[in-house]
Amino acid sequence: MIAENYKEMLNGKSVIRELFTYATERGKEIGYENVFDYSLGNPSVEPPKNFTQAMIDLLQHADPMLLHGYSPTLGNPVFREKTAASLARRFGIPYTAEDIFPTTGAAGAIAHAVRAVTVPGDEIITFAPFFPEYSPYINLTGASLKIVPPRVEDFQIHFEAFEEMINEKTMAVLINTPNNPSGIVYSTETIQKLTAVLTQKSEEYGHTIYIISDEPYREIVFDGVDAPCVSQYYANTLVCYSFSKSLSLPGERIGYIAVNPACKDSALIINMCGQISRGIGHNCPPSIIQLAVAEVIDETSDLSVYETNMNLLYKELTNLGFTCVKPGGTFYIFPKALEEDAKIFSEKAKKYDLMLVPGDSFGCPGYFRMAYCIDTEKVERSLVQLRKFVKECYGVQ
User: Fold this and answer.
1) What is the pLDDT of residues 172-183, one digit of tens each?
2) Domains of the chain by range and CATH?
3) Secondary structure (DSSP) of 1-36
C-alpha cells in the first residue's frame, strides 16, 4: 500500500509552481521576455563574485577529499565557526560554533527545529499571511500547524486572535520576518509584545514555548525600516536561515539553525539535530558549499534592485486604486485584488501575461502576491500590461 497522505497532496500542488510552469510554457510561445512572471521567488541578481572565486580557488587548491567527502555529523567546523563569529559581530549575541547546525536551506532548518521541540500531538502557531509550505513542514511531523488570521491593515501580528489560540499544547511559534508573502517586517513593538506573551504563557503552562524564526530575507530590508533581531529579544529562539536570497544561491541549498546560546537546552538542541538528520535523511549540505559560503559569510549580492522594483510597483498599484501595505523588505508585494475572489482575479490576469499568485494558499483570500525579483526593465514594461488589465476588466482608468 502506498502512503495515502502523500498521494492526497498530489491534489494540492503548489499554486506558485504551477503558475511558474505555465509561464515557462507561455514563454516558449511568445518569448519569456514578454511574460511578466511574478510567480516564483527566485533571486534575479548574481551571487557575489567573491563566492564564485572562492569556489574556483577551492577546486584548484584545496584537498579534494575535504571538498567532496562527507562533512562531520554536525557540519563543517569552519562553516560553523565563521557563521557563529559573524552573528556574534553583527548582533552582539555570543554565538559559538556549538550553536550552529548547517542545513539544506531554511526548509531543512525548519525541519530540524520543529522536530527538536515538538512531538506528535503538539501544536505550532504561525501568523497569516504565511508561506504555504509551512503546512506540510509541520503537519507531516505529527505536530499540528495552527494559523492566526491576518491583521490586514498592516500585516503585523493579530494579537487578540493569537492569545485566543495559544494553549498548553503550543510548543513553538513560527514567525517569518521579513515576511513572505506580504513583504512587511515585524516591528520592534510587535516582537516585544510577542515575547512578552510567550514569556508569560511559558510560565503559565510550565514549559518553554520557543520561537522558530524563519529568516531567509533578513538581509533584504529597505531604507529606514525597523527590523529588530528576534534573538536579541527572546532567549528561546531558534533562527532558521538560508543563503538563498542574501547570496542568490537557492540551488545550492545551504542554510543553518542558530540556537541562541541563552536558550534552554541550547547545546542539547544542536546535538539533537545531528540525530534528527538520521531520521529524515538530511546529512548536511555539500562540503564544498559550506566551505565556499564560509569565505563570504559577511557578504551579500547587490540587493538594491529589489527596493527599486518595490517602489515602482507600489506607486503604480496605489495609483490604480489597489489597497496595498508597503513592503519593508523581501522581494514580494501583497495587494488586495479588485474583486473578492483573488483566484478569478489572477486567472483574468493570465490573459494579459501577468502571473499573479492568489493569496488563498497564504491564508489570506482576496489578496495576491507579486514576486518582483525580475529585471527592473521588465517591471516597467509590465506596468503597461497591468494598466491595460485593470482598465479592460475593472474599468480602472
Assistant:
1) 999 999 999 999
2) 4-47+302-394 (3.90.1150.10), 49-295 (3.40.640.10)
3) ---HHHHHHGGG--HHHHHHHHHHHHHHHH-GGGSE
